Amino acid sequence: MRALTLALMTATASPALAAPCGGDFGSWVAAMKAEAVAAGETPATVDAFFAGANPDPRVLKADRAQGVFRKSFLEFSQSLISKDRLQKGIANASRYGDIFARAEKDYGVSRGILLAFWAFETDFGAVQGDFNTRNALVTLAHDCRRPDLFQPQVLAAIQMHGLGEFDLDTTGAWAGEIGMVQMLPGDILRLGVDGDGDGLVTLKTSAPDAILSGARLLQSHGWRAGEPWLQEVILPDSFDWELTGLDTQLAAEQWAAMGVQVRSGVVANGLPASILLPQGRKGPAFLAYPNYSVLFNWNKSFVYVTTAAYFATRLMGAEPYRAGNPDPALPVAQMKALQQKLAALGHDVGQIDGILGASTRIAVQKEQTRLGLPADAWPTADLLERL
Questions:
Q1: For the chain, what percent of residues have pLDDT higher than 70?
Q2: Distance CA 304, CA 295 (A)
């Protein structure tokens, strides 16, 4: 279900772009062909790759509209996590137990995390996207929004095509990701693993390849072997809400000394952690460890990452979260109005898009503190009115 969040864009390094974005598509293709040949690809391979390639307007439409991430954590998590998906996850953990054991041994990545992303990206391979991958990549590489990210992906796809690992009718997500765990060509070339021993890395059809490649990707982003990522906690009524948020870290045992209680397991003594309140002090609360932040290299959306991290704990045996009774989420129009007010006050909230991302949360918490409100980083109608 990937919506592009610049997560897997670690493609082959590229100097100044050889193919100017925008303008005549045929001229752009000619420039890209020259760049690919200069990089070592044969003219025949390059010509074959671009034969019949066309921009896809559906890709640009999808790129401009990612409203799913405007949902609150409770809405988003309840829409993605079902009894059926949980049961499928447990079944796949058993079916590919030896592969997950390899992922944990070789790359240090928990099966829970890999299962969660496998579930959310493609429903365990069942829904991998119907966009022609080549056309999606050339569309985004020709577009002037992020050519520096996508032109190297086109070059990587050409290289994969020459290796026999990229068919021109390959389909996937609108942003060019391929396979069961939705990786971009540059990442597949750099980090893909032949998990089934057939001599190829085929993430569309091979679960072992997809699982191990995803594990290696997370390891490359700094995943810490043997460490937790998220634990649900219960906070005391007297808790200082200004201490919540990812920009405040204390040792896990320090949080415990303040009365923070984990609902299952024990706190990971010695590890830094933050108190995470996806929907403020009246909703679920979590301890977020360093591995939680690593997941933003997979997807930049706060609500997506938090939901995946939570689902991974469920797959590893954690209880369902205590939903609580948080204040209602602001509608999109009000959230945009809030972001505009915060920006006018000098806060960096990024794009005015109605999405409660990390920078908007930080700004909300600062204004809550200034106004003497509970500083839990959850925007309310009261806060909007006061601003």
A1: 94
A2: 10
